[in-house]
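We treat protein structure as text, and this decision shapes the records that our systems exchange. The remainder of this section carries one protein's record, kept here as part of the documentation:
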Amino acid sequence: MNSGARALIVSFMLFLLWGTVLTGPFRYFAYAFRDLYTWVIDSLHTQTVLSGFVIIFLIAVTLVVLLILGASRFSQYMAALCALLSMIYYLSICIKNDSFDLVSFTATFGLALALLFLIFQANKASLWLADAYVFSIPVLLFFELVMTPLLATVKASPNLLSFLFTAPAAGLAARIGNLFQVPMLIWTVFLFALVLIPVLYLSKNRMKN
């Protein structure tokens, strides 16, 4: 299977299962970058609208770097590195909130699985797992930049499709708003499309299984 098809399958599964315990490790991997960049930009007291564009840009650059690494010999280590980062971020949230939940099991399992794949050189399985982490980022952006503003535009609850997924009540889209009186949904869909261009191109040029 080529890398583009693998990326499409993984992204679709992440989308359908977003918000469930199963995708917990992958969500926290994407959250780690979003929340880090948000914290840095807000610490600099960046104007709200500008901060939205900058955070999206930084997330997009991070995604491109990860996809480029996935096309190199470093790809065999990607799953383990991503799983470790996800676990560290999840633990930091748990320590901050002084509570743990079922995601702790799946996050630990994800890291253990990645390490086992690395130790036994199960490269094909490792590529699938790495993609689950990497493509959690564009899936997160889809919810932040498409689903959330779409539901807000039609004045629907973020829980409208809770049997499939729950969209964020607010997020990056809210920072941009109706800039220059252009509807927020148009801005955010445009930005998501821009991010998607390099993702579609680079996702085809990585290791195959």
User: Anything to note?
Assistant: The chain has one domain: 3-202. The radius of gyration is 17 Å. The mean pLDDT is 88.
